[in-house]
């Protein structure tokens, strides 16, 4: 074996050393998230064996069928994070309201927003799914329970964002604003080990990812763009290759590595598209910017949008800078 092994815990401690005033709260919080990710990873892998595949029959706040693993992942995140004394409030894509810290536990200075199991409609087909998380500093006074205002901060205020992809291996990717770093879970000793330091996304996309079955519901400008990426033009690297899993974490992760643009535009069926601003778009936007890419709602940076409500949806164009700029040009055209 050669070289030094950098575990996630060691990496987080080194990140926190950038701040002489740091108390270790952030390190504790990240360790709790990593622990929850290991539990979710274990259960996602064992889903068939443990007979927890399939739907519960309930409908979540987004009007989608809830899978048992969604509930497991949600409860795991809440239980892993509620008693560490690092958070003042949480919010999960699985529940309608903010999640308060139980009275018996101490309150902290951070806020954690998460989508516990994104892409879960794919689970029964063994397709990769993921957990997405976002961390903010509280804006309400210390010592009191956090409020909705703490959860509705503009994306630029994120102090950390990350995702875990439960795929052929489990990977945790995160940023605190100093680059994007990817860690692969070694199942033999249960540690996330640095495998992708300082990830940079390519300048230009090779891939476009979109649910093209919505084509007829899109505005003409979006149709024009999708038509454009399919035209043959060697000088601009077209046609782009089409890849769409239907699991944001997996589509995003592949595009981050290979260079791609993911779009979920508005349509006549869903005027703001499908994706959630605070649970999906903001964390991925922070990560993509740190990797040299961009995320836009078609008009402005996702990270500059002020969320109005917890489950707000937003059109999302995310990936390589060149291609996000290009789609904005198409949207601007009369
Ligand atoms: O928001 C949930 C989600 O499953 C994302 O992970 C994914 O990118 C998207 O929805 C897929 O939506 P559709 O099935 O409409 O393409």
Would you spell out the secondary-structure blueprint of this structure?
Blueprint: H1 8-16, H2 25-45, E1 55-59, E2 65-67, H3 68-81, E3 87-92, E4 99-100, E5 110-118, E6 129-137, H4 148-151, E7 160-166, E8 170-175, E9 180-186, E10 191-196, E11 207-209, H5 220-230, E12 241-242, H6 248-258, E13 260-264, H7 277-290, E14 294-296, E15 316-319, H8 321-332
Parallel strand pairs: 3-5, 11-12, 11-13
Antiparallel strand pairs: 1-2, 3-4, 5-6, 6-7, 7-8, 8-9, 9-10, 13-15, 14-15
Helix pairs in contact: 1-2, 2-3
The chain binds 6-O-phosphono-beta-D-fructofuranose.
6-O-phosphono-beta-D-fructofuranose (F6P) is lined by residues 118-119, 121, 211, 246-248, 251, 274-275, 280.
Description:
The chain is an alpha+beta fold and 334 residues long. It has helices at residues 8-16, 25-45, 68-81, 148-151, 220-230, 248-258, 277-290, 321-332, and strands spanning 55-59, 65-67, 87-92, 99-100, 110-118, 129-137, 160-166, 170-175, 180-186, 191-196, 207-209, 241-242, 260-264, 294-296, 316-319. The strands form 3 sheets. An 8-stranded mixed β-sheet has the order 4-3-5-6-7-8-9-10, with helices on both faces. The protein has a 5-stranded mixed β-sheet with strand order 12-11-13-15-14, sandwiched between helices. Strands 1-2 form a two-stranded antiparallel sheet. Strand 8 (170-175) and strand 9 (180-186) form a beta hairpin. The longest helix is centred in the N-terminal third of the chain and has 21 residues, at 25-45. The protein is globular, with a radius of gyration of 19 Å. The model has no long low-confidence stretch (mean pLDDT 93). Bound molecules: 6-O-phosphono-beta-D-fructofuranose (F6P). 6-O-phosphono-beta-D-fructofuranose binds next to helix 6.
């Amino acid at each position: 074996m050669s070289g030094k092994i950098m575990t996630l815990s060691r990496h987080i401690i080194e990140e926190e050393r950038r701040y002489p005033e740091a108390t270790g709260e952030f390190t504790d919080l990240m360790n709790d998230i990593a622990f929850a990710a290991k539990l979710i990873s274990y259960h996602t892998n064992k889903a068939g064996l443990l007979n927890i595949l399939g739907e519960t029959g309930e409908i979540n706040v987004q009007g989608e069928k809830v899978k048992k693993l969604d509930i497991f992942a949600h409860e795991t995140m809440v239980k892993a994070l509620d008693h560490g004394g690092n958070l003042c409030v949480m919010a999960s894509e699985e529940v309608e309201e903010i999640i308060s810290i139980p009275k018996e536990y101490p309150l902290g200075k951070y806020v954690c927003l998460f989508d516990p199991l994104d892409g879960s409609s794919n689970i029964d087909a063994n397709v990769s799914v993921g957990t997405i998380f976002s961390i903010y500093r509280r804006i309400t006074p210390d010592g009191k329970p956090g409020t909705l205002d703490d959860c509705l901060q503009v994306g630029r205020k994120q102090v950390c964002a990350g995702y875990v992809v439960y795929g052929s291996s489990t990977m945790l990717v995160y940023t605190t604003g100093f680059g994007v770093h990817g860690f692969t879970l070694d199942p033999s000793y249960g540690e996330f080990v640095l495998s992708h330091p300082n990830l940079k996304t390519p300048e230009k996309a090779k891939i476009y990812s979109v649910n093209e079955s919505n084509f007829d519901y899109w505005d003409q400008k979006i149709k024009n763009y999708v038509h454009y990426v399919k035209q043959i033009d060697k000088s601009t690297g077209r046609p782009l290759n089409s890849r769409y899993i239907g699991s944001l974490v997996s589509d995003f992760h592949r595009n981050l590595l290979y260079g791609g643009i993911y779009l979920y535009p508005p349509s006549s069926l869903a005027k703001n598209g499908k994706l959630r601003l605070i649970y999906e778009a903001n964390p991925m936007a922070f990560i993509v910017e740190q990797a040299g890419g961009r995320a836009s709602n078609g008009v402005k940076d996702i990270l500059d949008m002020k969320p109005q409500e917890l489950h707000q949806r937003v059109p999302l164009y995310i990936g390589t800078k060149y291609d996000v700029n290009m789609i904005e040009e198409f949207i601007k055209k009369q």
